[in-house]
């Protein structure tokens, strides 16, 4: 689970554009989410990275890394007719790539 959900991130980015102050964003965050004096709030670097990410991508969500997962569709199963269904669950990723199975 991520520490800061989308609502937290959006609140911080909006507050930053209104005030242009990271300190004020942290104050707004404490008030809006009822965080105590010694509670966890987003750091200066975290807030600035959300703002930068929003300016570059238009979103505050994290980008998922890595190759997309393959899906077992009827077309993919027909592409590999020589394998039975038990073997399909343990099929190595490179073998599906060699057979040009779509994702």
Give a verbal description of the structure.
The protein has two domains: 6-57; 68-103, no CATH class. The chain contains six helices and no strands. It has helices at 6-19, 22-32, 44-57, 74-79, 85-88, 93-98. Helix 1 (6-19) packs across helix 2 and helix 1 (6-19) crosses helix 3. The longest helix has 14 residues, at 6-19. The two termini are 27 Å apart. The relative contact order is 0.11. The mean pLDDT is 82.
Into which percentage range does the β-strand content fall? under 5%
Q: Give the oligomeric state.
A: single chain
Give the count of helical stretches.
Answer: 6
Mean pLDDT figure: 82
Q: Give the termini separation.
A: 27 Å
What is the string of helix and strand elements?
HHHHHH
Largest sheet: none
Number of domains: 2
Category from helices, strands and their pairing: mainly alpha
Shape: elongated
Cα gyration radius (Å): 22 Å
The number of strands is: 0
Instruction: Give the low-confidence spans.
Output: none
Percent helix among the residues? Answer: 40-55%
Which SSEs are present, and which pair or pack?
Elements: H1 6-19, H2 22-32, H3 44-57, H4 74-79, H5 85-88, H6 93-98
Helix pairs in contact: 1-2, 1-3
Provide tags for this entry.
mainly alpha, 2 domains, 53% helix
